[in-house]
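Duplicate of #3305? Posting structure anyway:
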């Protein structure tokens, strides 16, 4: 018994790990974003603030896509960014810079947040005044459906996902957004 070493076997889960590891995400994000920001800084000294802001937003979104590959939301975000880039590069013949913020896909999240805030405020108001009658189940179902619609608007490509997939994708999307905020705060603190 003493001569035999205990053999350990690595246990692999059937499903691949869906949550991105922070170190891998951070490394990929920084490797993509820092050179892109340096290129923007070097080449756009005389450009308008809005133009630079749009280019930076695009590069931040592309860094997110590059760092979190393999998710449905990442693929949807990449498709939106490529569609936006193709529309604006073919129409203007130039880079993706534009001063019109309404067509920028990275602004779609801020539009969604505005709608979500309106929906949530309305739901909170209604939740406080629900009558105790047979309509409670119907009201709860309506509230759940409206909350699911809000979640679908928050995640890129959420409209095309079933509820189970959306919840799984939302978990990875939120964790990647948290890591993105941490990296961007680090970059802002480092440069200030």
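Output from current build:
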């Amino acid at each position: 018994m003493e001569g035999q070493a205990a053999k350990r076997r690595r246990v692999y889960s059937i499903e691949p790990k869906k949550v991105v590891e922070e170190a891998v995400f951070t490394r990929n994000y920084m490797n993509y974003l820092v050179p892109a920001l340096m290129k923007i800084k070097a080449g756009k000294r005389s450009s308008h603030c809005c133009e630079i802001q749009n280019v930076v937003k695009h590069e931040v979104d592309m860094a997110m896509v590059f760092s979190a590959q393999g998710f449905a939301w990442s693929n949807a975000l990449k498709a939106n960014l490529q569609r936006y880039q193709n529309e604006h590069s073919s129409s203007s013949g130039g880079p993706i810079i534009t001063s019109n913020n309404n067509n920028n896909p990275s602004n779609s999240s801020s539009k969604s947040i505005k709608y979500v805030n309106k929906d949530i405020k309305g739901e909170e108001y209604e939740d406080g005044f629900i009558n105790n009658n047979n309509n409670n189940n119907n009201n709860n179902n309506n509230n759940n459906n409206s909350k699911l619609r809000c979640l679908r608007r928050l995640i890129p490509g959420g409209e095309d996902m079933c509820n189970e997939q959306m919840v799984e994708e939302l978990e990875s999307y939120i964790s990647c957004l948290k890591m993105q905020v941490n990296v961007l705060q680090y970059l802002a603190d480092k440069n200030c």
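Confirmed duplicate; merging threads. Residues 163-191 form the longest helix (29 residues). Confidence is low (pLDDT under 50) at residues 92-133.
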